[in-house]
């Protein structure tokens, strides 16, 4: 073995002479748990590939009559102005509920969060008014 250690410890160069496979010349025994080695695994995988039936390998296609028609979901859902407002108010209510739960859990809320909680009653009134007007319009249309 040849070792070269320069003054800088980050530049360490080791040149090692190739050692023989074994120094005792003892024959290695097989694994006690009889796991297959590389050659055996390759042989088994080749046997499995050969045993496959042509039908298993071939890609089978459905007849055109049996194919299901695809639904195109890429089109955006068109909402009316009232539906958009209802969705926004419901989202605001969810946020207020979350803030109220945090406040009950003992979390200290800042001024903006407290202001948002104080708008709960007005938000509920607006939401109820929009829902009632929306249902009245639907009743008139039908």
In words, what does this structure look like?
With 142 residues, this protein is mainly alpha-helical. It is 51% helix and 4% strand. A two-stranded antiparallel sheet has the order 1-2. α3 (81-104) runs antiparallel to α5. 0% of the residues are buried.
Mass-distribution shape: elongated
Overall SS class: mainly alpha
The main β sheet shows up as: 2 strands, antiparallel
SSE run: EEHHHHH
Biggest β-sheet: strands ordered side by side in the sheet: 1-2
Number of DSSP helices?
A: 5
Number of strands: 2
Unreliably modeled segments: 10-18
**Distance separating the two termini:** 95 Å
Global Rg? 37 Å
Helicity level, as a percent range? 40-55%
Strand percentage lies at under 5%
Report the average pLDDT across residues.
77
In brief, what are we looking at here?
With 142 residues, the protein is mainly alpha-helical. It is built from five helices and two strands. The longest helix is centred in the middle third of the chain and has 24 residues, at 81-104.
Present the secondary structure layout.
Blueprint: E1 2-4, E2 13-15, H1 38-51, H2 54-57, H3 81-104, H4 111-118, H5 120-141
Key attributes of the depicted protein:
142 residues, mainly alpha, two-stranded antiparallel ribbon, 51% helix, elongated
């Amino acid at each position: 073995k040849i070792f070269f250690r320069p003054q800088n410890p980050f530049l360490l160069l080791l040149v090692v002479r190739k050692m023989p496979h074994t120094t005792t010349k003892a024959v290695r025994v097989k694994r006690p748990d009889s796991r297959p080695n590389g050659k055996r695994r390759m042989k088994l995988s080749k046997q499995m590939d050969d045993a496959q039936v042509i039908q298993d390998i071939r890609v089978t296609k459905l007849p055109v009559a049996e194919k299901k028609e695809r639904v195109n979901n890429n089109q955006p859902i068109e909402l009316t102005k009232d539906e958009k407002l209802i969705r926004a108010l419901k989202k605001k209510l969810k946020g207020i509920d979350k803030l109220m739960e945090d406040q009950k859990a003992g979390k200290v809320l800042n001024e903006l969060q407290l202001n948002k909680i104080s708008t709960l009653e007005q938000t509920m009134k607006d939401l109820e008014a929009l829902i009632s007007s929306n249902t009245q319009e639907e009743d008139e249309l039908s």
